[in-house]
Amino acid sequence: MSIQSQLVAYADGGQVMEGYMAWDDAASGERPGVMIAHAWAGRGEFECRKARDLAAMGYVGFALDLYGKGVLGSSPEENAGLMQPFLDNRAKLQRRMTQALELTRSQEPVDASRVAAMGFCFGGLCVLDLARTGADLRGVVSFHGLFHPAPNISGRKIRAKVLALHGWDDPMATPDQVAALGRELTAAGADWQIHAYGRTTHAFTNPAANNPAAGTVYSASADRRSWQALRNFLSETLA
User: 136 in helix, strand or coil?
Assistant: First the structure.
């Protein structure tokens, strides 16, 4: 096994983005691709490491960039300032996610017919929005994502299988919002699952998360269980 990586530049209008792709060059031929949508701070080492982890599992990992080349927040205030324009303009978010999907499909190691997407926190909302557009991809996985429905989309069928991995005590996605997501996915005809982890809050996959007052705390058990759930889901959807 020899994990390789490279930066991939692309643009949306005048905004230049820079994704990060990882793959195992010991393998031959095309293989499934998995996009990773970043949390509210932007594409950082956390997402790049996930891309390499996916490459070690036999996929091509592509950590996409929504904010722009080199744009990273360094505080909750900066992170919120970067994320909010996309929450306010979901069509822009969906356009950039769709663009990243097509870019992933076009990469030489990727089997364009077998692509999935996963995301963390804000990135969880991003991959759910990609599914909400009716995009033709195998599946999407949200890790402690935001569940706010997209006001600019209604009545579309969801073709991707959906897996939401959720901390039951997450203050940013309440039990009422979990139930609403289930109803939304059912109405859209989706094949969906929601896994809820008890005594678990937001950001449970991030070892640096340790702010009980904000409801962001790492959980080793939920991190391990959710990653196994991802592995099972990808094995099924990308076979």
Answer: coil
Residues in the chain: 239
Which distant-in-sequence residues (6+ apart) come within 8 Å of 66 by Cβ? Answer: 17, 37, 38, 42, 43, 86, 93, 96, 97, 126
Beta carbons of 141 and 125 less than 8 angstroms apart = no
Architecture per CATH, domain 3-237, reads as: 3-Layer(aba) Sandwich (3.40)
Which amino acid, residue 216? T
pLDDT tens digits, 39-58? 999 999 999 999 999 999 99
Task: Look at the pTM and tell me if it is higher than 0.70.
Answer: yes
Q: Report the alpha-carbon distance of residue 67 to residue 83 in Å, rounded.
A: 8
Helix, strand, or coil (residue 8): strand
CB-hemisphere CA count at 13 Å for 106? 8
Bridging pattern class, strands 216-217 and 210-211: antiparallel
Which residues are paired to 24 by β-bridges? 3
d(CA 63, CA 123): 11
Distance, in Å, from the CA atom of 70 to the CA atom of 235, rounded to the nearest integer, reads 33
CA–CA–CA angle 187, 181, 133 (5° rounding) = 65
Q: Which pLDDT belongs to residue 1?
A: 76
Q: What is the mean pLDDT of residues 90-95?
A: 98
